[in-house]
Specification:
alpha+beta, conserved putative lor/sdh protein from methanococcus maripaludis s2 fold, Elongation Factor Tu (Ef-tu), domain 3, 4 domains, 6-stranded antiparallel beta barrel, 5-stranded mixed beta sheet, 31 strands, 19% helix
Length: 454
């Protein structure tokens, strides 16, 4: 009888200890007693009055019929425990207990021992079977021979300032005849453009005729006066031969070109120095390109440039960099670069818009480079995704150098042979950013599996 009492007492103590242990622990959540995928954060009863079962932190999560495979990983050790549950669609939403999203999909568990291999924060694991589905492509970072690269810019055509001319007269008078009467007319050096009546010129010719008969210093001074008034040589020769002054004096073109402005009109009075014509030589044109500040240091005078225009699709115009202007635009952070373009056929016209490519010289030394598509650029930070093997992809910050047509130089962050993602990297980067944020939210720093497929 005494032995039976002692056994009962011992049994009662054991029951009390177990009850005390359960009371000291805080359940993570409560699950339907029949194992259905129905959970509650607090104690709850079924419709027939049965209590929901508490699920504690050190217990394996119950398997619900609709749960994905990733949610029922075998828990081989005490560290393989659920930290939290994440949104199955990758949204920044977590839950301390199992739940479903608005589409009825189960949230995926994140375990404590994931990333125990020491992977950097943000590393993404993708099941090899999904790599092809996602279109993930990689390419090795490699040393590229330093070759000329292209600097892209836009530009506007203007007349060559070295071949502009303004036609004026040095005396006042009246235009009595216009030999060139339309803007756009081509003119040649020495061609008569207009004839004017200028009383001062007539008086100067009469003075010359008198002085020439007197000879000596007076005649020489009178001759110089005519030349100072831009009287043409052929007019002075005619004056000597005939001995008679002319009523009209010819105004001649000072250079070959095209009339780009013609203020002169027949019958109008003009003052000394007033512009009658403006001409431009169109055999070459200036293309003023706006080059970004970061590209300015790679451009030198004499480098080859190529321009294309909307008006001439498929045709390229080649020229050379002639001058780099010494100022920078504070608004656009661009510098003007002058390019001289030959215009033998006269196809180019002032104010045409151009896309410009300038071949910048190489730096000489081979450079580590990756395809442009491998770089994820936020403006303040540049990142590439490095394939670390076994479906792992690590985000890595890099420092960029010069850019080519389809590649970019890497100054820091990679080494030759590193496999970088060139396709579907935006999808992996979005997943990586989410992983990093969730790990910080949960206080962890390990690797998180992508898509729940490990």
């Amino acid at each position: 009888m005494r032995a039976l009492l002692l056994a009962c007492t011992a049994f009662g103590l054991a029951v009390s200890s177990a009850a005390f242990a359960d009371d000291a622990r805080q359940p993570l959540y409560y699950q339907d007693p029949d194992g259905r995928p129905d959970y509650a954060p607090t104690p709850k009863k079924t419709n027939d009055g049965r209590d929901y079962k508490p699920v504690f932190e050190d217990a394996a999560p119950a398997r619900a019929p609709s749960e994905p495979v990733a949610a029922v990983k075998p828990q081989a050790s005490g560290e393989h425990r659920v930290l939290y549950y994440r949104n199955p669609m990758g949204l920044a939403d977590t839950s301390p207990k199992p739940k479903k999203d608005s589409m009825g999909m189960d949230y995926l568990p994140v375990y404590a021992d994931e990333g125990a291999q020491g992977d950097p924060p943000g590393t993404v694991r993708i099941n090899p079977g999904r790599l092809q589905t996602l279109g993930v492509r990689t390419e090795a970072a490699e040393m590229r021979p330093a070759v000329a690269r292209a600097v892209r810019a836009t530009g506007i055509l203007q007349f060559d300032e070295r071949h502009l001319a303004t036609v004026t007269t040095k005396v006042a008078g009246w235009i009595e005849q216009l030999d060139v009467a339309a803007t756009g007319d081509a003119v040649r050096r020495g061609q008569v453009l207009a004839e004017i009546y200028a009383p001062d010129l007539v008086a100067s010719e009469e003075e010359y005729l008198v002085a020439s008969r007197m000879g000596g210093a007076i005649g020489a001074a009178s001759d110089q006066r005519l030349r100072a008034l831009d009287i043409p040589e052929n007019e002075i020769a005619r004056l000597r031969k005939t001995g008679r002054s002319a009523r009209r004096i010819a105004v001649m073109a000072p250079a070959d070109g095209v009339v780009i402005d013609k203020p002169a009109q027949e019958g109008m009075r003009v003052d000394a120095g007033e512009a009658l014509y403006r001409t431009a030589d169109l055999s070459s044109m200036w293309l003023i390109a706006e080059v970004q500040e970061q590209d300015l240091g790679t451009i030198r005078s004499g480098e080859r440039a190529r321009a294309s225009f909307v008006a001439f699709p498929g045709r390229a115009f080649e020229g050379k960099v002639d001058f780099i202007y010494p100022t920078l635009s504070a608004e656009t952070r661009t510098a003007r670069v002058r390019i001289v373009l030959p215009n033998a056929d006269g196809a180019l016209r002032a104010a045409m818009y151009a896309d410009v490519r300038i071949d910048a010289p190489s730096g000489g030394e081979p450079m580590l480079s990756v395809p442009n598509s491998a770089v994820l650029d936020s403006g303040t930070r540049q990142v590439v995704l490095v394939a670390a093997g076994e479906g792992r992809f690590e985000p890595r910050s890099v420092r960029l150098g010069v850019r080519g047509d389809d590649w970019v130089q890497i100054l820091d962050g990679l080494k030759p042979g590193d496999q970088v993602v060139t396709g579907a990297n935006f999808l992996i980067d979005a997943e990586s950013n989410l992983r990093t944020a969730l790990q910080g939210f949960a206080g962890g720093s390990g690797t998180v599996e992508q898509g729940g497929v490990q």
